[in-house]
Amino acid sequence: MLVKQVISKNLFFCTPSDSAQTAAATMKTNGVGALPVVSDSVNRKLEGIITDRDLCCGVVATARLAEGTKISELMTRDPITCAPENTLEDCEELMKKHQIRRLPVIDKAGQCIGMIAQADIALHAPPIKVGRILAEISKPKAAQQAWVASA
Questions:
Q1: CB 8: neighbour CB atoms within 10 A?
Q2: What angle do CA 123, 139, 74 make, to 5 degrees?
Q3: Mean pLDDT by 10-residue block, N- to C-terminus, for the chain (151 residues)?
Q4: Residue 134's pLDDT is what?
Q5: What is the pTM of this model?
Q6: Tally of CB atoms within 10 A around 12
Q7: Alpha helix (H) residue ranges in the chain
Q8: 15 with 6: CB under 8 angstroms?
Q9: Rounded to whole angstroms, how far apart are CA atoms 110 and 92?
Q10: Which residues of 58-84 are buried (b: 16+ CB within 10 A; e: fewer)?
Q11: Cα–Cα distance measured from residue 130 to residue 118, given in angstroms and rounded to the nearest whole number
C-alpha cells in the first residue's frame, strides 16, 4: 500500500514564527501529537517538525512562557520524510531505523502534503507485524540504555 492512499487530506501545520502556545492549541484541537513546520500556508515548504514532546521538554520542563517561545526555537530541522509514492513498508523501515513515530510527507517540490504516523501503518498491517514495528521503534537509544543501566 502506498502512503498517498493512507494520509489524511487535512493537513494541520505551523510556521517557525508561530508560538509554542499556538502549536499546542492546534495539536489539542485536532488530536495530533506532531505538526510539520512549513514556510507559510501557501507554499508549505517543509522546514521542520514539532512534537508534543518538544513542547513539553522545551517549554514546560524549562518553565518558559509558551506564548513567547517561537517554534523555530524548538523544532527539529531537516526531519526524516517520505514521499506519497513510498510504500508503508518504506515508512516502517524509516521509523524503525530512526526510532521515530511520525513522518512528514513531501512532494517532489518539497511541499508538505501530509503526515504519516505509526498508527496509520498499524491500521493497515497484520497484527503480528504491528508488534514488531512498535518494539523496534520503542527501543531505548544508546544514551538512554546507558543511563538506565547505571540507575
A1: 13
A2: 85
A3: 87 96 97 95 94 95 94 96 94 91 94 92 72 66 48 40
A4: 63
A5: 0.81
A6: 17
A7: 20-30, 52-55, 88-98, 118-123, 127-138, 142-150
A8: no
A9: 21
A10: bbeeeeeebeebebeebbeeebebbbb
A11: 9
